[in-house]
Structures are given as C-alpha cells and as structure tokens.
Here is the input.
Amino acid sequence: MKKQVVIVLWVICVVLLVGIAPTRIAMDKAAAPDYEEVTATVVSSETTQVVNKKTGSKTDFYDVKVSYNGKVYDLINVHNSYSYIEGRQVKALLSGDKLYANVEGIQTSTPIAKAYFVCLIGGFVMLIIAASAQSKYSQQKKADKAAEASNQ
Here is the structure.
C-alpha cells in the first residue's frame, strides 16, 4: 500500500464528511416540493418480509400499487400495507410523474437529498476504508523496517 493511496482515501473521506452539514442545511432550506394532492384507488397491497439469516432480524418491504387517471403507479414511501386495502380511495401526492404516500418521500428524492445521503453513507464507509488502509500501510512499513534491520 502506497502512502499516496492512503492520503487520497483520507482526503475523499474528509470531503464527504465535511459535505454532510452543507447538504443537510441545503436540503432543509430547499423550497417546498412541488406536488398536487390527488385521490387514487388502491390496486394491490403486499408486504414482503425478509429475514436476515445471520441475525434473524426481519425487515418488511411494502409494495402498494394505485391507479390514478387510468394509469397504475407504485406508491412511494409507504410505511405499511394494511392501510391500503384493494379498491379503497387513498390520498396520494403527485410530483413529477410519481405518486408518493407523504411529503417526506418527495423531499428525500430530490437531488440535494440524494447528495446528502451520498455524503452521509459515503463518508462513513470511506472512514472505515481509510482507517483500514492506514493500518495496513503502518503494518507494512513496520514489517519493511524490521526486514531492513534483520538484513543489516
């Protein structure tokens, strides 16, 4: 592992971590999302439960399809499926060409929100990678010094 690689990894890590605050502030200050409240009809509602084989923890994924103006949409950012009974009329938010269950779904799908999540997740992933690379570099350097000392 070269020292330059370790330095580049730390620089990327710092840039991503520093980017968290400005992108979060920009996300909070962003103009209210443009949407229209509409009434849609639930076409289907399913819950899929995935079990982590290692930990045994369970995660639910909700797939709700609604019909609005003769077109079927996936309802985005649904928090349960039991509230969406087939044939029932529900409130949905139309933004762009997508239907959302709530305003939070619209806010977290904006480009600045995506940049925030990239900085947040990427920053912490890079922190782990950079720390591992630093450790590997340090161990390699110590091993090289020990080899030099034994050769002399």
User: Anything to note?
Assistant: The mean pLDDT is 91.
